[in-house]
Amino acid sequence: MFAPPGRRVVDSVTVLLPVPPSVNALYRHGGGKGPHRSDVYRAWIDGAGWRLQAQRPGRVPGPYVLLLAVPRSSRMDLDNSVKAVSDLLQRHGVVDNDRNAVRALLEWHAEHDEVAVTVRGLSDGAALEPIAPVRPPLEAVA
User: Fold this and answer.
1) Cα distance between residue 119 and residue 65, in whole Å
2) Sign of torsion, CA 136 124 122 95?
3) SUPFAM superfamilies, alphabetically (predicted)?
4) pLDDT tens across 64-95, in order?
5) Is 48 within 8 Å of 108 (Cβ atoms)?
6) CB 51 within 8 A of CB 117
7) Per-residue pLDDT, 5
8) Residue 71 near residue 114, CB atoms below 8 Å
9) Can you tell me the mean pLDDT for 40-66?
């Protein structure tokens, strides 16, 4: 993991990032090595990492909510943006672990050509209201 030393702890971080490759283009197979990062993904990681560092974000420790606003002009499926962005946030120490995401909210925007990323920390013991219907009663699906 690449995390600059001394990143300050904050409650919330908002950054702008280049649109990531679709999740379908992140990895390639072949060469007897198994899955490996595609050239497109490696280039995005490098460019997006520099863009992230230039904004000098803090670190949101523990559980968090991830909000992504993706430019409609990207023409990607909205949910294909989450994996690369989450991995980048972890790689650069903005979040401790992308498994700490409790909820991800996704939407389109038309203001500019970058992904607006917000990470909002959850205070200790905070619980989010479930988004219904989370679990239909078993008799409803039988």
Assistant:
1) 6
2) negative
3) Holliday junction resolvase RusA
4) 999 999 999 998 888 889 999 999 999 999 99
5) no
6) no
7) 61
8) yes
9) 94
